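Figure 2 data, in text form.
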Amino acid sequence: MYDIFIPDAGADRREEMIGDYEEIATIKDLLRTSPQGLSITDISRQLHLHRTTVAKYLDMLQMKGDVDLRIMGTSKVYHLSNRVPAAVIRGFYTGPFILFTTRITVKEYSPDLADYGIVGDITGKELTDTELAPLYDDSMPELCRRAVLGTPAEIRITTPDKKNQRDLKIRIIPVVFDDGRAGCAFLIEDVTDLTIARREVEICEKELKIVSEDLNEFVFRCTPDGILKRVNHPFCVRMDRKPEELLGFPYEPVISREDLERLTKMKQQITPKNPTQTIAFKAIQ
């Protein structure tokens, strides 16, 4: 009978991976305390790691978008960043997008840009080229330059097509490509329906305000948790307060606990099909 011992190579590899993660986390912690950035030599000296090991970890972090690199003289200086890998946008972002290089030229884009006036192949086009005019705003070049350096931004624009005008919210975010190079991305969200709905609400609010001031009844608008957002003049007279003394405060303290419970249940019954409810309650002076 023989005892045969087969070493578990997988266990060694798992221990090595755990060591990698711990050392990578240590590098990130060190960079977090050094916003000006550190070179490979600095990190190697402070953490007592081999330069080759540090360089390998920094390459991994750069590919993930966790660190950025800038050249200072003959040194490569690394600092923490917060970039989204381009592969994540390609694979998981469901809306239209455009990926730009460091020079703000189009590297990749989604196939659904025709709805917003972008037609044809725009690969290699600059942001200021006429092909991208439907999505262009004068502030974008500077916002893109900042995003390439690591600062995200957000802008709202209206497409110039009068027949099919769209309101868009564009998030401009820092990205890192598969080769480790930096860039930025346009993540485009169509908010046309939301804009129309908000305009209609504003119109209704103005009309309600005009009407409510002529009523003798107390009229006020509040948030779902009972914070006053608008009050009419009769309500202010009844409460013996100025509007600015009432807005931002809850109206519920003037209602008894029993009536407040009934009011809470009643509000839960309001739906688009059943938009109004009526309740009578006593007000506490």
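Caption note: DSSP finds nine helices and eleven strands in the chain.
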